[in-house]
């Protein structure tokens, strides 16, 4: 089983026991604000950690010093596989944001992707209002490829109408990758 590490982090597959740390951040409104789901209960966090433990797209990001899981990455191959394109996603505990942990973890996973998995293109999408997300992508050297209008909705307003959101599309080719 692949385990990646950086100066401060261990990036590994999920375990069912990660549910407590997962619940600590997925139960926060400010963390799930731009996610397609709402805050998770303890029960949902147990189920989600278990589900993720057998889903190779999810990576747990843990502090080397304490072992605490402070966030997760999502890295999923797209169909058709011959296009060698993967999607990157990330969610970090709000208490641990602003320390460069997400950037450090993404850089390591991208290195693994480009150098070991021989990926050609990585894409990432985010809501333009989620500045922390697209700033992270730009620090990682991703290019903004598009701004699509009213692509979907995850939430409703007080009258029950969908709150449509836009989407920024970002991409990074292996040929653009430089550590
Ligand atoms: C998107 C998200 C992962 C970005 O996290 P982040 O902590 O801002 O990103 P980084 O790891 O790159 O950290 C950069 C910040 O750490 C600071 N920093 C401190 N020490 C640092 C170090 N050693 N190295 C690098 N940066 C460091 C930087 O100055 C920067 O701060 P700033 O934002 O105030 O300028 C995070 O906001 C998040 O999880 N949001 C909720 C979930 C979400 O919306 N996910 C995306 C859905 S599309």
Radius of gyration: 16 Å
Could you say how many structural domains there are in total? 1
Instruction: Look at the structure and name the CATH superfamily.
Output: Gcn5-related N-acetyltransferase (GNAT)
Q: Give, in order, the helices and strands.
A: EEHHHEEEHEHEE
What percentage of residues falls in helices of 4 or more residues?
A: 25-40%
Largest sheet, in brief, is:
8 strands, mixed
Q: Characterize the quaternary organization of these chains.
A: single chain
- Main CATH class: Alpha Beta
Distance between the termini: 24 Å
Work out the number of β strands: 8
* CATH T-level topology: Aminopeptidase
The appropriate CATH architecture is 3-Layer(aba) Sandwich
GO molecular function: acyltransferase activity, transferring groups other than amino-acyl groups
Keywords: Transferase
Domain N-acetyltransferase: 9-175
InterPro entries: Acyl_CoA_acyltransferase (IPR016181), GNAT_dom (IPR000182), N-acetyltransferase (IPR051531)
Written overview of the protein:
The chain has one domain (4-176): Aminopeptidase (3-Layer(aba) Sandwich), CATH 3.40.630. The protein is α+β, with helices and mostly antiparallel strands. The chain is built from five helices and eight strands; from the N terminus they run E-E-H-H-H-E-E-E-H-E-H-E-E. The model has no long low-confidence stretch (mean pLDDT 97). It has an eight-stranded mixed beta sheet with strand order 1-2-3-4-5-6-8-7, sandwiched between helices. Strand 1 (4-5) and strand 2 form a beta hairpin. The two termini are 24 Å apart. Residues 31, 34, 90-92, 97-103, 126, 130, 132-133, 136, 139 line the site of coenzyme A. Coenzyme A is lined by residues 31, 34, 90-92, 97-103, 126, 130, 132-133, 136, 139. Residues 9-175 form the N-acetyltransferase domain.
């Amino acid at each position: 089983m692949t385990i990646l590490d950086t100066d401060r982090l261990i990036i590994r597959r999920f375990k069912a026991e990660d549910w407590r740390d997962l619940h600590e951040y997925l139960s926060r409104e400010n963390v799930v604000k731009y996610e397609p789901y709402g805050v998770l209960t303890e029960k949902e966090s147990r189920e989600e950690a278990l589900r993720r433990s057998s889903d190779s797209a999810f990576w747990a990001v843990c502090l080397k010093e304490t072992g605490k899981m402070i966030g997760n990455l999502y890295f999923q191959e797209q169909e058709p596989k011959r296009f060698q394109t993967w999607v990157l996603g990330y969610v970090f505990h709000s208490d641990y944001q602003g320390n460069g942990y997400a950037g450090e973890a993404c850089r390591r996973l991208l290195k693994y992707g480009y150098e070991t998995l021989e990926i050609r293109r990585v894409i990432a999408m985010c809501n333009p209002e989620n500045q922390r997300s697209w700033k992270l992508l730009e620090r990682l050297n991703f290019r903004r490829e598009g701004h699509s209008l009213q692509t979907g909705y995850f939430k409703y307003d007080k009258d029950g109408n969908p709150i449509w959101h836009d989407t920024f599309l970002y991409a990074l080719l292996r040929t653009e990758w430089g550590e």
